[in-house]
Each structure stands twice: as C-alpha cells, then as structure tokens.
Amino acid sequence: MSARGTVLALLAAWAAVPALAEGPCGATYRVQAGDTLESVAARHFGAGADWAPLYYANLAALPPTDGAAEIAAGTELYIPCPPGAAPASPKVLEPGEADITLVVADGHGPLADRTWPGGGMGTALLVSALAVAPDPLSHRMRWAEAGAGALDGAGDIRFPVIAPDCSAEGAREICDAWHFSDPVFELPMMLFAATGGALAQVGAEEIDGRRICRPEGAPVDDLDRAGRRWISEGRITLLRAPSAEACLEMVVEGAADAAGLDLYLGAARIAAMGLQGRVAPLEPPLSRETLRAAVPRGNWRGTTLIWRLNAGLERLRASGQRDDIVAQHMRRLAERLR
Q1: Which of 263, 282, 286, 284 shows the shortest CA–CA distance to 334?
Q2: What is the pLDDT averaged over residues 232-254?
Q3: For the purposes of burial, counting CB atoms within 10 Å of the CB of 5, is it exposed (0-12), middle (13-18) or buried (19 or more)?
Q4: In this predicted structure, which of 34-43, 235-244, 248-257, 264-273 has the lowest mean pLDDT?
Q5: Under DSSP, is residue 318 helix (H, G, I), strand (E, B) or coil?
C-alpha cells in the first residue's frame, strides 16, 4: 500500500478499543480437547479475532497454525495481558536468570510502548524474531524511560533505533560503537499540520520559513542531510518539545507550523488527543526511515547476537509470521483511529 493509501486507511478506520481480558492473564492455561487459538482468545481476551498475541507468546509450544485449528490437548499456553489488565502471576525474569537484557525505549506507541499489546508492533516483531532465532537466548525486558533514546543506558540489545548514514559527517562515532540489525520495520516520516492551515494548503515541500517541532531526543537526520539542509541552511526553525503530544499541541495553538513525526506515532497521538479533523499528515512523506535494533560493539558476543537476531527476522519473513504480526497490530491501531 502506498504511503497515501496507508494514511487514508488509518484515519478512516474506527472501532471500539478491544475489551480487557475476561479470564486470568499473565498465567499458564492448559489446553482442553477442542480448544483453538480463537476459542482461548475469546475466553481470555473477549474476542476470538485477537488470537495473534496468544500465538506469538507461545511460538515454542505451537506448530505453524491459524486461529481456527485445534490445539493438542494438554499443551500449556502462556496468556499475555492486554493493556490495563493485571497479570494473575506475572513471569518476570530476574537479571541473573536471563541470558540477555532487551532495552526498549518506551513512549513510541504503537511501535514500542508498554501500554500497547505485546509492547507495540516493533517490540512484538523483535521478541518473536528472538524466539525463532538459532539457539535462542532467554531475555528480560527493560523499559527505558519515555523520551529516552534507545542507545542510552545498559543492555545487550537496544530498540528502537534509526541507524544513521554511516557515510555522513559526524556519524562515524556512532557506527563504530554499534552493530545495527537488519530492518525491523519501515517508518514513513511525515509533517503533521493543522487542517486548513497555511502549510496544509501548499504541501510538505513548501518548507522555507516554517517552524517544525520534533520531540526532544528524536533524531533530525531527515531534516538535515545531503540534498536537504533545512536546518544548517536556516530554511526552517527547529523547535523541540518534551513529547509528540506537546508538538501536536503547538501545532493546534499555532506555535508551530508542523510536527515532524513518524506516521504511526502521529496517527496514534492524534486519536488519543481527539484531534481528528484538526491535525493531519501532509503528502508526500519527508522520508522513509528504517527501524532497527542495536548491539554495542563492546559486547563480547555482539556479533553473535546480531547474527541470531537477523536470522530470526529472516525466519519471520519467510514463514509469513511477520506479516501476521504487522496485520494484527495495524488492525488494533486502525480501531483507535477515525
């Protein structure tokens, strides 16, 4: 689907937020004769169509299947929790019990956010890739504070990261310090402007003199790179705000002409803030950035970790599981938008 088609599909869709779990979550369920993923999901999540998170939480216990296929009686399934539900008996690995620590920067919903199912689509893809990787390692999840960069703090694998252009001036230090994974997901970067405002009338390419807000800590490479020196040549005024919400508020108040956000983050925040019809993305996208995971080069097994992760990502793609995960999360995002 084109970027324009994606935008229109996301903004046009609307449904109620999925119901919270009706049965205990964060616990183990023993499959009974005749059970399917859909029936178990209906019992615990309130909707049989929400079986995908259940499947990806139990990859090691299940063969490739669909939601309607019967599961072998006696199989033990871990029941993940939807947002807002308290686990009955959470399984938390302590630092000494896990092989590696996965650090995820919070607040990037729907891609990486502890309040989204599976920790967000990007997190679900990464965790699923680790689960099917050769010689998989156990891991504990550590959420970095919302707004923090994924390259901040200790951990074996950091996510999400937009890898810099290693040929660009100033990027060598970062590239020398980190291994970057194969692509996990592609992000269309958009300008979100007031509907009916001046910038909405002329489009994203009429940029001279505009005030563009970007959340603190978010990279600005797409605003100042070869062929687009908007910042260094003084073509725009770069504004910083504490969060994506703050940038969107500045747009509504007229303090900024646009907020520079990725398509999915911007769409989710617009829905959460009730700004549908007041703020919208402009075509064409500023750029398409590739979301990756990163491993410190100083990690004694960094090369092996990246190899395993990349192999897991390839297995997800080859099996079709990646498309299933993306479709499930896109459906959930569309339900929150209008």
Answers
A1: 263
A2: 94
A3: exposed
A4: 34-43
A5: helix
Q: How many residues does the chain have?
A: 338
Checking phi first, is residue 173 left (phi over 0); if not, alpha (psi -120 to 50) or beta? Answer: alpha
**With contact defined as beta carbons under 8 Å apart, do 27 and 43 qualify?**
no
Q: Which residues contact 69 (CB under 8 A, 6 or more apart)?
A: 36, 37
Euclidean distance between CA atoms 273 and 262, whole angstroms: 16
With residue 141 as reference, give the H or E element that holds it: strand 139-144
Q: What is the 3-state secondary structure (H, E, C) of 239-294?
A: EEECCHHHHHHHHHHCCCCEEEEEHHHHHHHHHHHCCCCCEEECCCCCEEEEEEEE
Question: What does the pLDDT read at residue 207?
Answer: 83
DSSP 189-209: EEEEEETTSHHHHH-TT--TT
pLDDT for 137 = 73
Query: How far is Cα 57 from Cα 128, in angstroms, rounded to an integer?
Result: 8
pLDDT tens digits for range 53-65: 778 777 767 776 6
| Element at 101 (helix H, strand E) | strand 100-105
Q: Angle, to 10 degrees, between the axis of helix 121-132 and the axis of helix 321-335?
A: 160
Calculate the average pLDDT of the chain. 78
Arithmetic mean of pLDDT, 252-262: 93
For residue 102, the one-letter residue type is L
Q: Are 125 and 185 in contact (CB under 8 A)?
A: yes
pLDDT of the residue at 146? 61
Domains of the chain: 1-92 (3.10.350), 187-288 (3.40.190.10)
Which residues fall within 8 angstroms of residue 96, CB to CB, at 6 or more apart?
none
